[in-house]
Design a protein that fits this description.
By secondary structure, the protein is of the alpha/beta class. It has helices at 29-43, 110-114, 141-147, 152-161, 169-174, 187-200, 203-235, 239-248; strands spanning 4-8, 13-18, 50-55, 60-62, 98-102, 105-107, 119-123, 127-129, 165-168, 180-182, 256-257. The radius of gyration is 18 Å and the shape is globular.
């Protein structure tokens, strides 16, 4: 399903909404391809100078890859096809600022999107967690992206604790993952205020600053991401065993909030 896009020509802001509320805004293969195409399209849209990225409804911002997605993998142990690698704006060479408005659960593959947003505005009811280890999967790309935004001990705990606990919006704000908290009904307005401010400044100066910020950390980020396929290949349980673990656990039923 294609993400919903609302452009405001008067303010120069586009609101991109992950529109799969019935699946907690999980990303299927069609959505992944649509996001890649959208970011590349926005590069050429001179009327859009800033973006707000959010999810439909209040239950979830994004819960990562849709478990029903079937991704064929090459036989070579040196290759791994990850359909989420192209869903982030920076990967698609979009240097217009992106403000993430996190309206509910943000977990797993959602971190590909949060990791490539400039900053995060969060609902006070949002939660952040990484379920990979609970299901016999390596958190590689997700952990790397969050290690760019969170203190090491915090991202290590979140990545390793799996479904046992969730990071509250308040705690995410305290450690710097989130830059602003808003009540659920005020979330979009808060994100739009920041985006409209950014869109109102000279666009070349804003985009140049975005690029400078990313250049400060991109070399280390790329080196870490390059290791991810091998770690996933070595550490992931076979898909059928992952499915058994997933079926044996009820996501959200065993966690504690911190």
């Amino acid at each position: 399903m294609t993400p919903r896009v609302e452009r405001d020509g008067d303010t120069g802001v586009a609101v991109v909404t992950l529109d799969r509320e019935h699946r907690h805004n999980a990303v299927d293969l069609g959505t992944a391809a649509a996001l890649t195409a959208l970011w590349r399209e926005l590069r050429h849209d001179e009327e859009v100078r800033a973006v707000v990225l959010t999810g439909a409804g209040r239950a979830a911002f994004c819960t990562g890859i849709d478990r029903s997605a079937e991704v064929a993998q090459p036989a070579s142990p040196y290759s791994l096809d990850d359909p989420l690698l192209g869903i982030g704006p920076k990967t698609c060479d979009l240097w217009k600022p992106v403000v993430a408005a996190v309206n509910g659960m943000a977990c797993g593959g959602a971190f590909y999107l949060l990791g490539e947003s400039e900053f995060v505005v969060s609902s006070t009811t949002a939660t952040y967690f990484d379920p990979h280890t609970s299901y016999g999967m390596v958190s590689a790309y997700e952990a790397v992206y969050m290690a760019q935004r969170m203190p090491f001990g915090e991202v290590a705990r979140m990545s390793l604790m799996g479904t046992a606990e969730r990071l509250s919006a308040r705690r995410a704000y305290e450690i710097g993952l989130v830059s602003e908290l808003a009540e659920p009904e005020e979330l979009l307005g808060a994100a739009l205020r920041s985006a409209r401010t950014l869109a109102g400044y000279p666009t070349q100066a804003v985009q140049g600053t975005v690029r400078a910020l990313w250049s400060a950390k991109r070399a280390a980020l790329q080196q870490a991401l390059d290791q991810a396929p091998a770690l996933i290949g070595l550490g992931n349980l076979p898909p059928e065993r992952q499915a058994e673990l997933f079926g044996a656990r009820r996501p959200g039923a065993e966690f504690r909030l911190r």
